[in-house]
Each structure stands twice: as structure tokens, then as C-alpha cells.
Amino acid sequence: MSAPPPEDLVKHWESEQARLRQQVVEEDTEEWQTSPDFSGLERVGGVDLSFIKGDDVNACAQLVVLSYPDLEVLYEDSQMVTLTAPYIAGFLAFRETPFLLEALQRLKRNQPRLLPQVVFVDGNGLFHYREFGLACHLGVLSGLPCVGVAKNLLQVQGVYKSEEHQSQIAALQKGGDSFPLAAASGKVLGKALRSSDKSSKPVYVSIGHKISVDTAVHLTHSCCRYRVPEPIRQADFRSREYLRTHFPAADT
DNA sequence: GCGACAG
DNA sequence: ATCTTGTCGC
């Protein structure tokens, strides 16, 4: 068996996304999600992958679990992995999900009591070309509630960086303020959120699995000390730190 | 041809 | 994702 040509690969990936898309649960399913202050929520997870400068194959897969509401690190796992799939916009999950799932499996096997009750993913969830971004993919395959947080706006589903969009951003006065990102159909696929009073640039929140948009936005805001929610920020920081200490200047 | 293109 | 330090401002 040889690797299928890129075109066939993309076709296969598209059908795979369409199939898994049907399994996404777009509503709150957990008890803690119904509480205004999320009482019952004790652990929030964050995942990320970091790469070495000129290498897009070897990366550090990171999983962190923080306490809630204190946001203190309870668990950390850094693991070097070898990626096989290329990065193609719209198919990020096929490149990263396998390794993020492995990290969750290691945790489940070694310290099941530390499994997070919700996982923050850097990237989009429903706010995606086919309404099935990385956060949905990881959510469906892991069965865990997931929230997608993108640092940049994906211009898709009729959402553009228009004058109107810019003015809506300017109207976000304080941390917690948000406005909906609606598809041409009118369906709200996510929300632009001013995550803290200081950051004027919003983050784009969309649900991954087993959580409603409004709960996802509220939760994201409550996990932000800075612009990027703490679980993702810690995962990013620690995976980069791992690469720094284990792979110093790869020069001559 | 031009612009977009999560990480 | 990564290449990259200081710097201007609150």
C-alpha cells in the first residue's frame, strides 16, 4: 500500500469530517456547565504542539491540566512526536489530533483522577469550513467536552474582516464582551471575545464538543489571566520550554 | 492573476 | 508553527 495522492487524501479527509461531524454535541451535557459559577468544575485541560524552527515533522505534544478556578498547574506531559500528515488549512486535526489523543490516553491510564473535565484547544471548533475544526475532532474522538480558541480570524462561512467586523471589535469595551460569528445561514458558529480588559485584540471561541457556545465563551473568559486562556498559554509555554532545554541551537 | 490560508 | 529585541506606552 502506498500513500494516496494529496487530492485523494483530501477527499478522504473531507468525508471523514462529514461523518464525525454528526457526532458533535452542541449543548451543555455536564452538571457544572449549568452552574453560573461553574461549581463542580475542578480541572481544565490545555493542549498544544510546538515545533523546532526548520522542522515541521518533529514536535513536542503538550497536555497540561490546571485547577479551577485557581488555574494552578496540576499535571504536565511533554512528549516528542513525529508528525506524518502535512498542514493543510481546514484539516489541521488530521495532523495534530493523534498525538493529543495519545497524551490524554497516557493521563487516563496513569492518573485517571487528573483527567480534565473540559479541554481548551488552540484552533477552531465549529467555526470551520465544514463546521468541524480541531476542537470538534478532538472532542468527538476523546469524548471530552472541548472548546476551540483561535488567535486569528478564519475568514469563512461568510465571516470577513469587514469594516463592520472591525467596528464590532472596537465596540468590545471590557473583558467578557463578545459578538457572534454567524454563518450565512444565520447560525452562530462562534463568538469573538475580548478575553481581558487589557487586550483589544479578541480571541475567537467556538465549541468543540459537549458544551454550548455561551457556556464556552463564559468559561473561556473565566480562564483568562491574559489574552490567551491559561490552559492553552501554559501548554504553549511549556512545550516551547521543553524544546529549548532538549534541543539547543541545532546549528553547526 | 490576486488574496486567503486555524496551527 | 517559526524566523526575532528592543521599544513605545499605560
TrEMBL record:
Cellular compartments annotated: Cytoplasm, Stress granule; Nucleus, Nucleolus
Cofactor: Mg(2+)
GO biological process, one term: DNA repair
Gene Ontology CC terms: cytoplasmic stress granule; nucleolus
Gene Ontology molecular-function annotations: DNA binding; metal ion binding; RNA endonuclease activity producing 5'-phosphomonoesters, hydrolytic mechanism; single-stranded RNA binding
InterPro entries reported for this sequence: Endonuclease-V
Tree of life domain: Eukaryota
Keywords noted in UniProt: Cytoplasm, DNA-binding, Endonuclease, Hydrolase, Magnesium, Metal-binding, Nuclease, Nucleus, RNA-binding
PANTHER family with a match to the protein in the record: ENDONUCLEASE V (PTHR28511)
Family assignment from sequence similarity: Belongs to the endonuclease V family.
HAMAP family: Endonuclease_5
Its job: Endoribonuclease that specifically cleaves inosine-containing RNAs: cleaves RNA at the second phosphodiester bond 3' to inosine. Active against both single-stranded and double-stranded RNAs. Has strong preference for single-stranded RNAs (ssRNAs) toward double-stranded RNAs (dsRNAs). Cleaves mRNAs and tRNAs containing inosine. Also able to cleave structure-specific dsRNA substrates containing the specific sites 5'-IIUI-3' and 5'-UIUU-3'.
Subunit structure: Monomer. Interacts with PABPC1; the interaction is RNA-dependent and stimulates ENDOV activity.
Annotated protein name in UniProt: Endonuclease V
Source organism of this protein record: Perca flavescens (American yellow perch)
Lineage: Eukaryota, Metazoa, Chordata, Craniata, Vertebrata
